[in-house]
């Protein structure tokens, strides 16, 4: 009977599915036609029981007949809290048989990033970057697709997949053009919300929907009834089958199986029995049928529903407190009743006693039938069984989440361990759930604050506003002392910063420094305060900050990281204020250890964050020490890529690598890096400072290249308009936006923007003419309308440039002065600008000075030298200007 039922189930679910099957067949043929063919994602959408699973089974049959490798996985209603559950089902069968060395070689740099999430490598001690892990999983599929081509991936019940898997699926869907694989996803229209719904909808939007799956028509139901029961089934009986089931393929198959079991005749006289038979196949009827199998079988089914996956006779026997023989007997009874079955060997190689529910609807009905108190108790026992089996705290945590709070310190400890494991594999949401549940236990008073602190650290990047509440509560309680308290204050200030509450971040560390009696702790907190103030572009309530920072840094020798931090902060502050560049470099050099970042101040170190090394590197970049700046920027990029940090950190690294290229005059390379930065920043979220940095630098680079229309398009597309972010962006976005406005003919708006930049820079004493070039830009804009003011602005710019003392700053000021003059005075100033900029590492500015000097001096040789330099930089607008001057005869 079971075999007949299964055959009928397959045929039932494929009735009236010709168009869907044709679409799938074409997709398989396309995949098999060419190794380099882009990937495809198909989405089957329909309510429960409409045949999505059977359609995936038919996809497997079609694909395997064409020689494809097929892997499959399934979401589970009770397993949504298990991170990476579905993607592990999908990929583990290919990776687990590999020796560790083989898997490491195969996945390359992604092994240490994606391996822990896939359960094939031990996680490290650090908190994994979720975006990096997601990208690593996408890369793993890309490599597997090359090795196993043609590869077909099947995901059933995607609406019940874990959030981490759905995030990966959305990312894979975006990049399927690079991955020659066919992905077929089956889902219900609802049953998912929040971030999971967003990820699933994003994946579906990137794919191609199959036709909506509908119920069987009366004719199809009649055909299925006769195919199952015989051609003698009369029309009235067939119509009643359709009426009772509503044409639902699953319910139709189950009802017809019941008819066979009951030996009911398929004639009109017995059609009235169909409704009662149908009730026994689902809901309360299913539960009643289960109870008829006996108490032991009911307990066995309940235990299987609690486990959800990894269902074996032995594990169920232990959870249901049955001996092995009784458990085996129950398993057979439940298989015979079409409640449990052996896993499909096509999807994985099951052990002899592996089991799964015949259909998710049955699993849900059985799980919901367990009395609430007993269900909770069974989850507690299951957690212990999983722990005793050596599967780890993370595996047991999904059961612990269902246990009622009971002041159990052991449960708190297990949940904290599980949270650490989740963070180590890149699942902060799972960690958050564990720690929030631990707080409900609740923890003992002496560790309550520590649990809150751990929760705050887990939610720092995903929910800064929530983090603020957790950390404030933790700091108000006893239990956080010494270094841990200082770390909590630092994390709180970071969360405030991420939540756009910089003033409060500054006040938080300032207040903690004032109350802490330890001089070394005070020094560290003061450094954090100055760091947050240093990246704030507007006024703070801390007058005289630069003077106090200078006095404090003057006492520092660089003996520890707090002193090194203060030296970096002082160097950065002096650089933005336009103080002597040599002194800035000397401060920065003192912050290094043997020319390198000190341990604890590196790009991935969490004690201080990335702000300090970024400040150090940009200080070098704007003091013409581009070799040191580029070494640090490249180190950041390599470090984040190796560590798998694919979120905001990597976006900033690409931005600053682009900044290095831009300063060097390698404009093509700068644009490439900045577009990659913007791509990642878009994924992280618009409006953040890192997003502004990417957009601002890209527009600056496009303007330098002479690509004005493209710069305007980028500005429009990404909202490059006030209000500006609350943290500093380099270069200053106001002069960059003003240059764009001036270049597109919006002169009045450009002048207004530059005057606003003047006021903002003056308010903070930021007089570096390279970082804040508002004066030179404004003097050019006012040259015709107000030459007197333009001349005064140039004079001030030259004074500030000479105070700063770099070849770039002085050369740029002279370029501007030359542009305001005529005759021999213009030629002399242009020649001086060339002399300074030739010694500068900034080749674009050198090229511009050469072209301008060639035009002023009517020198073909200088124009051709400028043209060659501009061409090597990728400065197309400058190239065009030089060629125009040469062809127009503006040379001697």
Q: Which helices and strands occur, and which strands form pairs?
A:
Layout: H1 2-14, H2 18-33, E1 40-45, H3 52-65, E2 69-74, H4 85-95, H5 100-107, H6 111-118, H7 130-148, E3 151-156, H8 163-174, E4 181-187, H9 194-206, E5 208-209, H10 218-229, H11 235-245, H12 249-262, H13 274-279, H14 283-292, H15 295-307, H16 313-320, H17 324-336, E6 340-341, E7 356-357, H18 360-369, H19 372-388, H20 393-400, H21 409-424, H22 428-440, H23 445-458, H24 464-475, H25 482-498, H26 502-515, H27 519-534, H28 545-554, H29 561-577, H30 581-590, H31 611-621, H32 626-643, H33 648-664, H34 667-684, H35 689-705, H36 708-718, H37 733-743, H38 747-764, H39 774-782, H40 787-804, H41 807-819, H42 823-838, H43 843-857, H44 860-873, H45 876-887
Parallel strand pairs: 1-4, 1-5, 2-3, 3-4
Antiparallel strand pairs: 6-7
Helix pairs in contact: 1-3, 1-10, 1-12, 2-3, 6-7, 7-8, 8-9, 10-11, 10-12, 14-18, 15-16, 15-17, 15-18, 15-19, 16-17, 16-19, 19-20, 20-21, 21-22, 22-23, 23-24, 24-25, 25-26, 25-27, 26-27, 27-29, 28-29, 29-30, 29-31, 31-32, 32-33, 33-34, 33-35, 34-35, 35-36, 35-37, 37-38, 38-39, 39-40, 39-41, ...
Protein name: Regulatory protein
Domain Orc1-like AAA ATPase: 16-184
Keywords: ATP-binding, Nucleotide-binding
Relevant terms:
ATP-binding; mainly alpha; five-stranded parallel β-sheet; Rossmann fold; two-stranded antiparallel sheet; 3% strand; Arc Repressor Mutant, subunit A; 892 residues; single chain; disordered N terminus; 45 helices
What would a concise description of this structure say?
The chain is mainly alpha-helical and 892 residues long.
């Amino acid at each position: 009977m079971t075999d007949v039922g299964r055959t009928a189930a397959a045929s039932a679910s494929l009735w009236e599915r010709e168009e869907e099957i044709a679409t799938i067949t074409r997709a398989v043929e396309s995949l098999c036609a060419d190794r380099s063919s882009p990937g495809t994602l198909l989405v089957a959408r329909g309510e429960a029981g409409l045949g999505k699973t059977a359609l995936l089974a038919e996809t497997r049959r079609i694909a395997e007949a064409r020689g494809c490798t097929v892997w499959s996985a399934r979401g589970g209603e009770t397993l949504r809290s298990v991170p990476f559950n579905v993607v592990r089902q999908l990929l583990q069968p290919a990776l687990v048989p590999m020796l560790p060395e083989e898997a490491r070689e195969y996945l390359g740099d992604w092994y240490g990033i994606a391996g822990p999430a896939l359960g094939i490598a031990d996680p490290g001690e650090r908190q994994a970057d979720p975006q990096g892990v997601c990208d690593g999983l996408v890369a793993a599929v890309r490599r597997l697709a090359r090795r196993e081509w043609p590869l077909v991936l099947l995901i059933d019940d995607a609406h019940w997949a874990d959030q981490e898997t759905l995030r990966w699926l959305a990312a894979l869907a975006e990049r399927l053009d690079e991955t020659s694989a066919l992905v077929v996803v089956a889902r219900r229209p609802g049953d998912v919300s929040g971030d999971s719904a967003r990820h699933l909808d994003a994946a579906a939007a990137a794919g191609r929907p199959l036709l909506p799956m509908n119920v069987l028509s009366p004719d199809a139901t009649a055909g299925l009834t006769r195919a199952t029961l015989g051609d003698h089934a009369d029309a009235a009986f067939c119509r009643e089958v359709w009426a009772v089931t509503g044409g639902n393929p699953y319910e139709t198959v189950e009802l017809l199986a019941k008819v066979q079991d009951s030996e009911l005749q398929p004639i009109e006289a017995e059609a009235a029995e169909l409704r009662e038979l149908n009730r026994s196949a689902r809901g309360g009827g299913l539960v009643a049928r289960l109870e008829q199998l006996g108490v032991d079988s009911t307990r066995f089914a309940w235990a299987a529903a609690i486990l959800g996956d990894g269902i074996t006779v032995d594990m169920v026997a232990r959870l249901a407190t049955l001996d092995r023989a009784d458990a085996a007997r129950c398993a057979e009874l439940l298989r015979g009743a079409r409640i449990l079955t052996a896993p499909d060997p096509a999807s994985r190689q099951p052990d002899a006693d592996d089991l799964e529910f015949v259909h998710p609807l049955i699993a849900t009905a059985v799980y919901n039938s367990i009395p609430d108190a007993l269900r909770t108790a069974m989850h507690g026992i299951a957690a212990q069984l999983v722990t005793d089996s050596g599967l780890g705290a993370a595996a047991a945590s999904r059961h612990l989440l269902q246990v009622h709070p009971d002041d159990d310190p052991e449960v708190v400890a297990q949940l904290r361990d599980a949270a650490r494991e989740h963070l180590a594999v890149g699942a902060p949401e799972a960690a958050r759930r564990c720690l929030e549940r631990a707080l409900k236990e609740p923890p003992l008073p002496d560790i309550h604050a520590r649990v809150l602190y751990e929760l705050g650290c887990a939610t720092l990047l995903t929910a800064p506003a929530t983090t603020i509440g957790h950390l404030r509560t933790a700091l108000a309680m006893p239990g956080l002392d010494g270094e841990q308290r200082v770390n909590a204050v630092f994390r709180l200030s970071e969360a405030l910063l991420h939540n756009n509450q910089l003033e409060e971040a500054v006040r938080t560390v300032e207040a903690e420094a004032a109350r802490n009696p330890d001089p070394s702790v005070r020094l560290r907190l003061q450094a954090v305060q100055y760091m947050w103030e240093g990246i704030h572009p507007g006024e703070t309530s801390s007058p005289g900050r630069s003077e106090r920072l200078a006095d404090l840094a003057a006492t520092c020798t660089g003996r520890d990281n707090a002193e090194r931090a203060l030296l970096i902060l002082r160097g950065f502050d002096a650089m933005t204020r336009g103080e002597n560049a040599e002194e800035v470099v000397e401060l920065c050099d003192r912050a290094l250890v043997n020319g390198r970042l000190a341990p604890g101040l590196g790009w991935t170190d969490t004690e201080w964050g990335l702000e300090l090394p970024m400040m150090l590197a940009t200080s070098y970049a704007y003091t013409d020490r581009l070799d040191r700046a580029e070494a640090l920027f490249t180190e950041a990029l390599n470090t984040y890529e190796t560590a798998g940090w694919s979120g905001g950190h990597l976006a900033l690294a690409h931005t600053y690598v682009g900044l290095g290229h831009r300063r060097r005059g390698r404009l093509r390379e700068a644009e490439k890096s900045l577009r990659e930065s913007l791509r990642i920043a878009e994924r992280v979220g618009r409006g953040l400072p890192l997003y502004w940095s990417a957009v601002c630098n890209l527009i600056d680079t496009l303007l330098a290249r002479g690509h004005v229309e493209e710069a305007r398009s980028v500005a429009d597309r990404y909202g490059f308009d006030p209000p500006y972010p609350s943290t500093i962006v380099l270069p200053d976005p106001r002069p960059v936006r003003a240059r764009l406005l001036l270049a597109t003919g919006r002169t009045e708006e450009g002048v207004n923007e530059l005057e606003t930049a003047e006021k903002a820079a003056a308010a903070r004493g930021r007089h570096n003419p390279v970082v804040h070039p508002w004066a030179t830009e404004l003097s050019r804009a006012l040259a015709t309308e107000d030459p007197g003011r333009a001349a005064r602005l140039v004079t001030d710019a030259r004074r500030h440039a000479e105070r700063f003392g770099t070849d770039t700053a002085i050369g740029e000021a002279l370029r501007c002065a030359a542009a305001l003059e005529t005759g021999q005075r213009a030629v002399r100033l242009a020649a001086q600008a060339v002399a300074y900029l030739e010694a500068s590492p900034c080749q674009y500015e050198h090229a511009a000075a050469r072209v301008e000097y060639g035009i002023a001096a009517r020198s073909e040789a200088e124009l051709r030298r400028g043209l060659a330099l501009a061409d090597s930089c990728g400065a197309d607008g400058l190239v065009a200007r030089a060629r125009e001057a040469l062809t127009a005869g503006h040379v001697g």
